[in-house]
Amino acid sequence: MDNYLGKHILIELWDCDKTVLDSVEKVETMMVEAAKKAKVTIVEKCFHRFSPYGVSGVVVIAESHLAIHTWPEYNYAAVDFFTCNKNCNTDIAVEYLKENFHSKKFSVNVIKRGNINKGGIND
């Protein structure tokens, strides 16, 4: 992240345990634990279970946020982890989420955000 303000990790978890994906309590617990494992500072959290199924939530951290949206009917979860803390351990958090959602297939994409050498979108 040398000349960047933050790192945005896009995690797609496929073939997950649908009972976990549909439990607001389990999803919230895992997202908070992932933040703790990454060694970031939790500020606030908000999670909601939709009817008939699915959970969305966010853990606001001093370094930015972790967000999740689940589709139990597709055994799928989309997780965003955005951080400006160059020293946090996002790899451990990602592994924890993959294991605890029982994901059999996944993808992880990292996007560097805020290139400070460019200075703006028109550069």
List the helices and strands and how they pair.
Elements: E1 4-14, H1 18-21, H2 24-38, E2 42-49, E3 55-61, E4 64-71, E5 76-83, H3 90-100, E6 105-115
Antiparallel strand pairs: 1-5, 1-6, 2-3, 3-4, 4-5
Helix pairs in contact: 2-3
Write a structural description.
The protein is α+β, with helices and mostly antiparallel strands and 123 residues long. It has one domain (4-114): S-adenosylmethionine decarboxylase (4-Layer Sandwich). 24% of the residues lie in helices and 43% in strands. The chain is built from 3 helices and 6 strands. The chain has helices at 18-21, 24-38, 90-100; strands spanning 4-14, 42-49, 55-61, 64-71, 76-83, 105-115. A 6-stranded antiparallel beta sheet has the order 2-3-4-5-1-6, covered by helices on one side. β4 and β5 (76-83) form a beta hairpin. The chain is globular. The two termini are 19 Å apart.
Overview in brief:
Helix content is 24%, strand content 43%.
Key terms for this structure?
alpha+beta, S-adenosylmethionine decarboxylase, 6-stranded antiparallel beta sheet
* N-C termini distance: 19 Å
Order of helices and strands: EHHEEEEHE
CATH homologous superfamily designation: S-adenosylmethionine decarboxylase
CATH class category name: Alpha Beta
Q: Order of strands across the widest beta sheet?
A: 2-3-4-5-1-6
Helix content: 10-25%
CATH fold name? S-adenosylmethionine decarboxylase
Number of domains: 1
